[in-house]
Each structure stands twice: as C-alpha cells, then as structure tokens.
Amino acid sequence: MEESLGKGGKGVVVFDDQSLNPGAPGYRSSGTLHVRVVADLPQAEEEHSFNLSQPYLARKEPLDRLAAVATSFLGWQLSMALYGYLQRITFAGQPAVENYKARARVLRAQDDPLQVTKNWAATTSDTEPTSGMSYILLAPQGVEIQGSPAVGSALNAHLHITGNELLGIPVKLRRAPAAYHSTEQSEMDGPPLLVSLRVLARDHEEPILGSYTDTFLCAQAVSTWQAMIEQGRTCFLLIMDGSIDDAVEPFHRFFSEVTAHLGGQ
C-alpha cells in the first residue's frame, strides 16, 4: 500500500499499534486510522478506529483460516485501489525510485561510494525538532542486521522512546536494503512531514545468499539519502566505523544525546 499509493505528496504509511504520548509536542489525534482485526464479535469502535471482523480466523479448520487470510489480503488490495481512485493516485508504477537507482549505478562504478559524503554541505538547521514532523523512519543498512539481535533491540527501544514518548509520533524500524524496494517510493513522494534516519556500517558480513558487496550497500545507502534530500525530504545518513555488531554502545551514546537534546527543548 505504501509503495503503490505514495505519490504526489499523498498516500498512506502503515505502522503497528503504538502508544503515543498525548502530552508530547508532536502528538496529533487526527490523520490516523487504527484498524483492529478481530475474530470474535465486533467491539464498540472508538474514535479514529475501525474493527475488521474476520470470524473465520477463529475456526479450527486450517483451510478456513487460510481462506480468511487470503480474503483479508484481497480486501486490502481492493481498498488500495479504491483509495487511489478517490484520491486520483495512479497506484501502478514507482517513478520516484528511478532517481536513486540512477544515482546508485553511478556510485557503484566508483572506488569509494562514501567519498561523496565527506564534503557534503549542510542543507538544513532546525532548532525546533518537532516542527513539521509527523513520523520517523529508521533504516539500518546492511544484510546482517537480522543476525544482530542486540543491535535490533537497542535500535527499537531507542526509536520508540524518541518517537512515541518524547515526540508523540509513530515510528517504524525498517530493514535495508530490502526495504528500499518496497517503501522508498512512499518516502520520496508520499505523505510529507517525515524524518528518515539511515544507518550504515562500513564493514559488512558476507551474505549467505545473493551478492551484496560493500560497494553495493554503500552506493544504495548514499544514493537514497541523496535522492531524499533532492526531493526536499528530511533524511540523515549515520555512517558508523566497524561492523553493525560493534554498534550497540555507539547507538546508546547517539540516542542519549538525541534524548538530552529533545528534553532540553
């Protein structure tokens, strides 16, 4: 839904259920619809919420449960098409991602794709971190992130503290580079007012499958960061020395500084 509808500054961003601090400076009660999938009798709906009844999910027969899941996916596809029709969004194609793909091809031909980041001029300085911010996306870059539970746990905890508690906005922890293909269209041309933090470790483990080289991973990270900035989106690229397994303590220090900065506003 994100990649298909994220065009022309419109679309949707999907999050899991999160408890937001209503007293935080970035909290908003509008613009969000909470969808709850229920297998029993529908409960009373609250404001800005919708109960999606799927009674077949409670059946003992596996085929009935599979049919309910398939029906749910088809229903979401239909909802996506109807939303696109009503909002005049052409949900086929991903035109915005061609920018970063072209940049990545150029960077992959260089000896060091990270060289371009060394002399990059600052383009923004905002003393009020909550101005015009609706949600945060964090994408650790590297195929081995799923094999680093300590890093994933640290990132997830800090991200929710920063976004949900201090700012009162939803957050999403993505896995790169796979997530680029499915959400970059929405990040570049979908709903505005996002802040995206990309994390790149200089050293990467050899992948079990595929051919993600260091050059490829670095080129992908830098090219998407460049393309986001060109689109006027707020995007930061955090480059860390060493491997992602060595990043737990640096992450703690980084987010502690962010927390202290936000707490002082």
Notes on the protein architecture:
- Helices cover 40% and strands 15% of the residues.
- The protein is α/β, with parallel strands linked by helices.
- It folds into two domains: 2-86, no CATH class; 97-263, Rossmann fold, CATH 3.40.50.10490.
- α3 (97-108) packs across α6 (214-230).
- The longest helix is centred in the first third of the chain and has 25 residues, at 62-86.
- Mean pLDDT is 80; it is low at 141-147.
What is the gist of this entry?
This protein has helices spanning 2-5, 62-86, 97-108, 149-167, 178-189, 214-230, 248-263; strands at residues 34-38, 49-53, 135-141, 171-173, 194-203, 234-243. It is α/β, with parallel strands linked by helices and 265 residues long.
Number of domains as seen in the coordinates: 2
CATH topology of the largest domain: Rossmann fold
Ends apart, CA distance between termini: 35 Å
The low-confidence parts are 141-147
Structural class comes to: alpha/beta
Number of strands: 6
Which overall shape is indicated by the principal axes computed on the Cα atoms? Answer: globular
